[in-house]
Recover the amino acids of this structure.
């Protein structure tokens, strides 16, 4: 461990133990250098590392301050407030507009700040492609049978091994391989609820969750959600007392669009509530590998003793989105989910499964992920600081603890969809806030993607969007 | 054209013009050789070719007879009768048993007479695998966007071109690429009907159609179906008069399990009926390329002027099942189907689409298909003659005009599921008849797959099944 990493760890310990509290100002770089007898560069690096982990924040001209997600700082002007959505259960019909937005994002050669997908340039696709090719050559008789549900045994084993190594006991027999997390979420939802049922979601919520609800002709109800702590469990319980809620869909780690990491205690509470209410929870964990801090986040699944959590994930955000390989750990609904997978798409193609299994077995997935996380953490910092500098006064942003998207609240009255159209005319896409709600609770929000390696082009694009937003206010 | 092919064509003309009628005995090989002044081998080859096309049939010790599918020969003991299923609309729950049967078929190293999948040894997979690899190398930034619905433009263009070349005018903009025909059928059904609705199907019906109905919580009703002419349109109309039928799902060409090719006139009639009744038809065309006779079969879609036919197909039976690439031509439901594709699995992976497009553009798909058709036609003949020789008296078989499965009716009282289990103990799988009906209308039927290149092992397996069946009757 390098000296600056050691220093960062000491400070992190002090923060975690409560010696430093939220809002406390850290020693200046010079002071710390003198007191600890290390170079200024070392201190600076340690502070940057802590900042990239989301534990401290710099304020221009003022130095570094401890930043604890979820601490009571809602009063500060630059902090987002918890959401208070209109809590009416409604049928969902948002996908057509989202599809057309996504298509406009991909159609032209725009700067993809609106893209929901990770930039693939950091993914080891050449290696995977070679493994898939070799797997295809090896098989004399390649047919469907190799991948009948639950999935290819090599990949199932590797996924189970990975969970086990990270401390989560998983029965390989529970895993069902799917066509991306999209299919996993769809069939898990279909296993626990019926058309017409109401599903509780975070607010804002990742639109893919809304699409799953729409696909089945179910209804959604948005629950108040804290930008750092996640879904409000008391609010969920209140609503469930007044109307039947068939299931709850959440993204406790690095939620899209807010990027929060729900604290362990809250995760435990949510699972305890679900257990007591006998309410299945669909947990979308596609960003779990993209944490900025050292330790991997826990899952709701790891607190579940009753098989009520249906955990869904994929390799699309962490390894490759080209193969569309995801999986479900459906708890007590396992057999039903396996059957629905079979009915929905029969099998998931075998070669991509074999290629990923080979990569996991041989190639240091962890090394790849460390590079990816470091890059995203750094890009998060750059994106936030650019927005802070170039967006209109009154703009607030999320504090992502992982993933690759930033949720931006523009001053009230500014229309995110209008801004989207203005930006598109300049060859830039952004993610308009309407996509994240069934009742347009976020008209003045946008989502920005920072998965692309930083470049002058991206910097110019963010500045342009900020200026367009400022123009709208005039 | 070789001499024997020319002779076969002349005889086929005479049959089609009605000079030779169903049941007529052809000249003996010797007579024909003398009269036409060609060698005995030439006549024999011509007769074998006609037999493989399903136009004539040999009877031991008696010579060759004209065999016209659909001619009034139901009275003959070795002909299958049209089905008369119990016409009660029922909810569907057959998939779990089918999945476990399919898994037992794939789990062990059994002789796969029960497999629903084509043997991949005749497929040009090495070439496709190479194209996929090269496509993966070429793309600097490989991500999801390339394949957002409707699908990869290169593949869409190739599919449209192929239809056009075969005389069916297709708007490329109508095509939606899917994860196999399974997804195409699922989302087409979801586009035209709702949970609780009743769907009319052939009887027996391909179980994948029943699974699509089960997946959506719909009901099915089985319609009387002729083993050579297809679904009974009058029976369908009768039932639709007494209860609402939301849609009809059929496989007019080389139906699984019966293998018939619905005559053009009947196809036209079915579409006319659907138009008049405003009833959407989902047409499963996955075997369309596997015709034994020279001309490709027509589709229901080609007779449809109102956009009521949702045509589904895939490359899984004709090129490779490893990639799971299918498509839909959903007529007037196109936008709804595109949206459902997006909701169901987001995108279909791009590389397999690009590999298949490359193959279609460069490699003589038609040459490959000619080889495949000739092999299946020959294997059909061998399978039928083996069953005729080694199965108990009273056994009847279908007369497949394409595809690679034979439908076998065992003497009444013989239990296909019991036979399945006995065969499994000997390392042989067969497809039990229960899979093809919602109310077990075919307990004494089995389906045999003849897609594997003929071998002594397969021959022994068929003979063994025949003997086991005979033992059951004792």
């Amino acid at each position: 461990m390098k000296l600056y990493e050691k220093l960062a760890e000491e400070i992190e310990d002090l923060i975690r133990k409560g010696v430093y509290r939220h809002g406390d100002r850290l020693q200046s770089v010079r002071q710390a250098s003198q007191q600890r007898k290390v170079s200024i560069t070392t201190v600076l690096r340690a502070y940057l590392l802590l900042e990239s982990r989301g534990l401290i924040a710099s304020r221009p001209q003022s130095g570094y301050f401890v930043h604890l997600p979820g601490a009571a700082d809602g009063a500060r002007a630059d902090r987002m407030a918890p959401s208070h959505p209109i809590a009416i259960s409604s049928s969902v019909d948002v996908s057509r507009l989202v599809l057309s937005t996504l298509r406009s994002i991909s159609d032209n050669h725009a700067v993809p700040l609106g893209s929901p997908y990770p930039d693939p340039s950091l993914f080891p696709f050449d290696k995977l492609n070679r493994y898939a090719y070799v797997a295809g050559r090896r098989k004399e008789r390649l047919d469907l049978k190799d991948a009948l549900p639950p999935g290819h045994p090599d990949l199932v084993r590797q996924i189970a091994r990975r969970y086990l190594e990270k401390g989560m006991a998983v029965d390989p027999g529970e895993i069902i391989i799917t066509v991306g997390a999209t299919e996993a979420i769809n069939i898990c939802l279909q296993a626990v609820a019926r058309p017409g049922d109401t599903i509780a979601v975070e607010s804002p919520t990742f639109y893919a969750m809304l699409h799953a609800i729409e696909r089945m002709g179910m209804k959604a109800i948005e629950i108040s959600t804290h930008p750092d702590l996640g879904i409000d469990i008391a609010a969920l319980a209140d609503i469930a007392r007044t109307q039947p809620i068939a299931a709850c869909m959440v993204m406790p780690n690095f939620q899209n669009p807010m990027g929060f990491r729900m604290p362990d205690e809250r995760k435990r509470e949510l699972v305890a509530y679900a257990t007591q209410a006998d309410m299945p929870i669909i947990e979308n964990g596609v960003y779990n590998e993209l944490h900025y801090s050292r330790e991997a986040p826990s899952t709701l699944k790891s607190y579940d003793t009753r098989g009520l959590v249906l955990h869904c994930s994929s390799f699309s955000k962490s390894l490759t989105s080209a193969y569309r390989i995801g999986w479900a750990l459906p708890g007590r609904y396992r057999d039903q989910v396996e059957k629905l997978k079979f009915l929905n798409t029969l099998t998931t193609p075998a070669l991509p499964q074999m290629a990923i299994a080979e990569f996991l077995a041989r190639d240091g997935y962890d090394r790849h992920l460390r590079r990816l996380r470091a890059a995203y953490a750094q890009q998060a910092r750059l994106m936030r600081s650019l927005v802070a500098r170039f967006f209109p006064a009154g703009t607030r942003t999320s504090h992502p603890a992982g993933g690759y998207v930033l949720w931006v609240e523009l001053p009230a009255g500014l229309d995110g969809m209008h801004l989207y159209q203005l930006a598109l005319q300049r060859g830039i896409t952004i993610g308009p806030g309407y996509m994240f709600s069934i009742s347009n609770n976020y008209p003045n929000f946008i989502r920005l993607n920072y998965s692309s390696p930083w470049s002058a082009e991206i910097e110019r694009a963010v500045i342009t969007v900020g200026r367009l937003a400022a123009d709208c206010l005039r």
About this structure: The mean pLDDT of chain B is 90. Residues 289 and 318 of chain B are 7 Å apart (CA to CA).
